[in-house]
# Entry
Amino acid sequence: MHQDVSLIALIAWGFVLAGVFGYAADRLHLPALVGYLLAGVFIGPLTPGFVGDMDLAGQLAEIGVILLMFGVGLHFSAPDLLAVRRIAIPGAIGQIVLATLVGMAVAWFWGWGIGGGLVFGLSISVASTVVLLKELEERNLVLTRIGRVAVGWLIVEDLAMVLALVMLPTLATTLGGQVPGAEHGAEPADLASMALVVAITLAKVVAFTLLAMLVGPRVVPWVLIQAARTGSRELFTLAVLAIAMGIAFGASSAFGVSFALGAFFAGVIMSESQLSHRAAENSLPLQNAFSVLFFVSIGMLFDPWVLVQHPLEVLTTVLLIVVGKYLIGVAVVLLLRYPVDMALRVGASLSQIGEFSFILAGLGVALGLMPADGRDYILAGSILSIVLNRPVFAFSDRLQKWVHARWPVASARFGKARLSQLADELDRVKSSADARARDEQQRVTELIGKFPLLERLDEDAQEELLLLFRPSSASPGQRVIRAGERGDSMHFIASGSVEVAVKNGVVRLEAGSFFGEMALLTGERRSADVTAVDFCQFQTLTRRDFNQFMRRHPELRAAVTGLANERRAANLPDGQPDLA
Ligand code: CMP
# Structure
């Protein structure tokens, strides 16, 4: 039997080698991702032994980016993004322009045309989200001010790259390249058609954002609740992944937005749901696995020969990324009058390149704008800058200390005004998010506290049950249950009280108690009339939800059955066999 197992082989080799090299790197006090990259080089086409399928590797890497960006989105809210706009938007744009210009100057020196220079410059101007996030995570910085600024900055960069990717083919002929498949000597694009392309692209991004922000918050939390109500972990995880991958893919096919950006929005939308923490927990393992494959796939693309054949070019590229971009990042943040600490950290965060750079460089080569060597420099530059990123961070931390020691007053004072403005905005966002989380928590505790029966459930089960509860109410004198009818629900009394008409009088049930369980347990008709005594609020479980939940939580079933048996015994003093 012959089967194509290239995907399985790639994943197996990828995981095994990444595991081995990652462990070795960790023992050598190097970041584990250095090991992952090395694993990639080993299964790449340029080293002997197993050779992985490059296309598949690229797609696996893309899944890594999608899941990662989705995870970032889950920790972000729209107000978070707005809070950092004053630094992220001008900062990212300024940094892209400067880095691109420096890159173009270097490329001009190498004798490349304007088009080649532009592609090279853009490729080095955009940092890798995956690398940045790994580094921020490692340093526990994701949720700090610096982390928020850096992520906001990257979102702006991503948007700019989306624009660059769609514009390059239009501009290719003007810039001295050619569109593959087009007639020789295709007309250079005029200003009007370029403006049109930009306008259409921006309109698509805006349309996607509006759709995501208007429709998403209505649909996504609802889907999650439905999935959580089933009580099946599998279905819940599936819903989370379906939303992440579905939105990312849909965004890119329908709106031309990058997968990464689509996934980020999926995460932002989901972060509004009360179940977002469970979504984050559920998607984390996959996110980790695929981000490893991301680094493996970069390693696979790498051709070590370029280090021997073009050492100077590679060195220049690395210097541009590691030193040039660092300085540019620092300068831009300082020019925007934010403090030195933030400038140094943002600079360090951005002094590496990754996924977008490869895509841009690949496109540049395909359009005949950049020599194929350029892509190799970018790749080598990327790998080396990723490896160097941690030392750059460490250097940056030292520099920070040195600056504070050298200019204690100036460094403490510089940028204070802007920082406190940013801090205020972020604090406001955080405190309103905290307040919401607290309210939610309080609602849960209060509700659970009302029903002593539920205290025996663990926290997850309590949360699950609350999702199944449907609030209902009754006015004084209203018959809630009629003896002899079929039972389709059970009620927990949240406030008020009811009377159960039993043979020898009435039994009063107060808030915290429940009724209507007998018919659901036995399938028999209602055993008594139940009437509201005053204004009552109930949390009601439908028969279907009751059955499912009780099946999963036998301890609760036993408790409810126990009480139902007592009630039954009290109603029928001549004795009847117990309920099942
Ligand atoms: P069910 O038979 O579904 O509908 C009527 C409900 O009244 C019944 O479930 C019990 O929840 C409740 N009930 C019946 N008998 C008693 C009792 N002796 N004490 C308290 N509640 C009762």
User: Anything to note?
Assistant: The longest helix spans residues 191-229. The chain is about 70% helix and 5% strand.
